[in-house]
Design goal:
The protein is α/β, with parallel strands linked by helices and 481 residues long. The chain has two domains: 262 residues, Aldehyde Dehydrogenase, Chain A, domain 1 (3-Layer(aba) Sandwich); 185 residues, 3-Layer(aba) Sandwich (Aldehyde Dehydrogenase, Chain A, domain 2). Helix content is 40%, strand content 22%. It has 15 helices and 22 strands. Strands 14-15-16-13-12-18-19 form a seven-stranded mixed beta sheet, sandwiched between helices. The chain has a six-stranded mixed beta sheet with strand order 9-8-7-10-11-21, sandwiched between helices. The radius of gyration is 23 Å and the shape is globular.
Length: 481
């Protein structure tokens, strides 16, 4: 494995074989951009073709695997990740710039994701339905089962290099599908290390390939009609054009957001501030359900701002490998520069900077803005940065309208002790998930996760992802006579 002290390129995992290529990929350490986190390779077109052919052939094996074998493989992967927890956490911190505490949580979540996949493999069932609903259908019943849809093409993002890839790999194995995974080019070493665990776990030969590849080869992966399913996590600007190129295959898109939080007059302010500080600034805001827009009731606005600014000011920026670090760097200098440009645009349009607002290399401090125009990018687009925008409201219905005034709809958080407002939010917010008395950044790995509008198509969460990786088939049984 490539580390800061071992810069031999990590080989890539092609259908159960470890190979190299002429195209060496340098992986940057975001905390020290001049230092590599390691090296690996990008697949060649010939290697891509070999991986796809292997996935097609392996599907004839994986589709027939009994549940106990699929579950055993997934449990072995879960245990392997758990056994290499410290190594994987350190690797995520180095190549993704994620603070080590958060990186270790990601490793733990990935272990859980594969364990949950094993459980779903064991209970993947169907139903018996009556068909004798009219005289001509007398004596007939239907048996409904799910069957693996086919090989899966998967593309995962940089911000959770382990667990978001796990949310593609685990349901594919559980469903009985083969898979070719393109990990993020910014931090591929994590999943290549997991490939070592997959190899030892008992997955059928050729059924899993983990291949860093160029954008051009990634485009070929998207359009390749030998895949039955495409699952992609990333930006809307990339995801929706992928859907247009994907052809007849099923497409699952987990895209961006600019998540809103409503802090009602009845909210527990201490709890709201504590959780929103985490939701806004964890991993430098580089989370698609990071808190970005905060709507606070007039009656508690001033008290909330004072507490929130104090809490955010106490966060510690620093080296991701330091256990005391709360915020590490952004993924690269380009991301920090874009954030700076958006803050400057908002300030020029009348926004007030209550905290932060100035980049330092790849680091961007916790930043709180107020009174930003609704059409400013910090309000209308996905910041993907440690940046929040505050606004007041006096009527709960108006707060919901402000939250819905977005082309995104991933998750929203509502802090309230008013039961009526809680159900208004559940019924009225145009999102894939409403999180009551917690932040929209909350996710546990078996829940349905996905969005509406520009935030995506379909749902992840083990059982829900498996639904998109399987086909329903009915057997009609007629009793003669």
């Amino acid at each position: 494995m490539a580390t800061a002290t071992n810069l031999v390129p990590h080989r890539i995992f092609l259908a159960g074989r470890w190979v190299d290529s002429p195209d060496i990929l340098r992986v940057t350490n975001p905390a020290r951009p001049d230092e590599p986190a390691g090296f690996t390779y990008q697949a060649t077109p010939e290697q891509y073709e070999e991986a796809v052919q292997a996935a097609v052939a392996a599907f004839e094996v994986t589709r027939r695997l009994p549940a106990y074998e699929r579950a055993a493989t997934l449990r072995n992967i879960s245990a392997g990740i758990r056994a290499r927890r410290e190594e994987l956490g350190r690797l995520i911190a180095m190549e993704a710039g994620k603070p080590i505490r958060d990186a270790l949580v990601e490793v733990d979540r990935a272990s859980l994701t594969f364990r949950l996949g094993a459980e779903e493999a064991e209970r993947l069932g169907g139903e018996v339905i009556p068909l004798d609903l009219m005289a001509s259908s007398k004596g007939r019943i239907g048996i409904v089962r799910r069957y693996a849809a086919g090989p899966v093409a998967a593309i995962s993002p940089f911000n959770f290099p382990l667990n978001l890839a796990a949310h593609k790999l685990a349901p594919a194995i559980a469903a009985g599908c083969s898979i070719v995974l393109k990990p993020p080019s910014k931090d591929p070493l994590t999943m290549l290390t997991v490939a070592e665990i997959v190899e030892e776990a008992g997955a059928p030969a050729g059924s899993v390939s983990i291949l860093p590849m160029s954008r051009e080869l990634g485009d070929r992966l998207v359009a390749d009609d030998r895949f039955a399913v495409l699952t992609f996590t990333g930006s809307p600007a990339v995801g929706w054009p992928m859907k247009a190129r994907a052809g007849r295959k099923r497409v699952v898109l987990e895209l961006g957001g600019n998540a809103a939080v409503i802090v009602d007059r009845t909210a527990d302010l201490a709890w709201a501030v504590k959780r929103i500080t985490v939701g806004a600034f964890a991993y430098a805001g580089q989370v698609c359900i990071s808190v970005q827009r905060i709507f606070v009731h007039d009656d508690v606005f001033d008290a909330f701002v004072e507490r929130f600014r104090t809490a955010a000011s106490a966060l510690r920026l620093g080296d991701p490998l330091d256990p005391e670090t709360d915020l590490g760097p952004m993924v690269d200098s380009k991301a920090a520069a874009r954030t700076q440009a958006w803050v400057d645009e908002a300030v020029a349009a009348g926004a007030k900077v209550l905290l932060g607002g100035r980049a330092d290399g790849t680091y961007f401090p916790p930043t709180i803005l107020a009174d930003a125009p609704l059409d400013a990018k910090v309000c209308s687009e996905e910041a993907f940065a440690p940046l929040v925008v505050l606004a007041r409201f006096s009527d709960f219905g108006d707060a919901m309208a402000l939250a819905n005034d977005s082309r995104f709809g991933l998750q929203a958080g509502v802090f309230t002790n008013d039961l009526g407002n809680a159900f208004k939010a559940f019924d009225g917010l145009e999102v894939g998930g409403v999180i009551l008395n917690d932040i929209p950044t909350y996710r546990i790995d078996h829940m349905p996760y996905g969005g509406v509008k520009d935030s995506g198509l379909g749902r992840e969460g083990l059982r829900y992802a498996i639904e998109d990786m399987t086909e329903i088939r009915i057997l009609v049984v007629a009793q003669p006579g």
